[in-house]
């Protein structure tokens, strides 16, 4: 499956609780989706856990309007929710298909490694049925990735993709060799939270904090002085390229060999994505950005994650 350089992310879609500091409606996402497809961004990433299925529902309606053949659909099942579906990957998959109104999923992911070996075995049946075209694992370390590869290979299939938290503030998928392994095995590596839910967008600083009470605010508002040093370094590089801070953060991930998942909640996010694909960072710029990130001392690993050792 040929993938574009960027994936469009829908983590914030359907958020009714203000987790991201917004409560946008389906109608507000329609022009964003349409604009992205017009510009060639046909890879869309969602998950059952995103707003308890609301993200899948919204995306599914928009896909139906646009035409199924125009979209590569990526969604995930979360092991912690498996009991709701009798611990059956097949039932979880069917629920996602029903929410989105689809007959098949292009890329289906295990959202985290809890109970992953058994769930990976169950994925083989879905691959054989054609309801799932390719599979990936998310939030897996190198040992867990290799375990998934072995299970799938024994069933006559391959692991197609790995999706982990990956940003200037979290390079723990690079240090133990996950990126290198994926490259060697021709497994695509996707980076989520590449802009740390906006913390690396250049939009927020001490004078402009995250919305009070939002999940992002709880994580990053106390770190804004240190964060500013990172975004200032990003701005220095951005000025050289005539780009924004956010574009540099995403271009950095692409330069490392990742397919970044770009959360899209505004039309300008799509406009910026077009130019990101043309940004080529020098090795010197990459080192400069990483040194600034290291100097900040910020640990952005979230409560649901672990360091990829």
Question: Any chance you could write out the topology, listing elements then pairs?
Answer:
Elements (H helix, E strand, L loop, with lengths): L6 E3 L16 H13 L4 E3 L8 H13 L5 E6 L11 H12 L4 E6 L5 H14 L2 E7 L3 H13 L6 E5 L12 H7 L3 E5 L22 H6 L3 H18 L3 H11 L3 E5 L3 H10 L6 H14 L13
Parallel strand pairs: 1-2, 1-8, 2-3, 3-4, 4-5, 5-6, 6-7, 7-8
Shape: globular
Euclidean distance between termini CA atoms: 29 Å
Q: What is the helix/strand order? A: EHEHEHEHEHEHEHHHEHH
Strand % is 5-15%
The quaternary state of the protein chains shown equals single chain
CATH C-level name: Alpha Beta
Counting DSSP H or I runs of 4 or more residues, the number of helices is 11
Radius of gyration: 19 Å
Major β-sheet annotation: 8 strands, parallel, barrel
Low-pLDDT stretches:
none
The residue fraction in helices comes out at 40-55%
Question: What's the arrangement of strands in the largest beta sheet?
Answer: 1-2-3-4-5-6-7-8
Structural class: alpha/beta
CATH architecture grouping: Alpha-Beta Barrel
How many domain regions? 1
Number of strands: 8
CATH topology: TIM Barrel
**Global mean pLDDT:** 94
Question: What is the compact description of this entry?
Answer:
By secondary structure, this protein is an alpha/beta fold.
Write up what this structure looks like.
It is a single chain. This protein has one domain (7-296): TIM Barrel (Alpha-Beta Barrel). β4, α4 (116-129) and β5 form a beta-alpha-beta unit. Strands 1-2-3-4-5-6-7-8 form an 8-stranded parallel beta barrel, surrounded by 4 helices. It has 309 residues and is of the alpha/beta class. The longest helix is centred in the last third of the chain and has 18 residues, at 224-241. Helices cover 42% and strands 13% of the residues. It has 11 helices and 8 strands. α4 packs across α5. The relative contact order is 0.13.
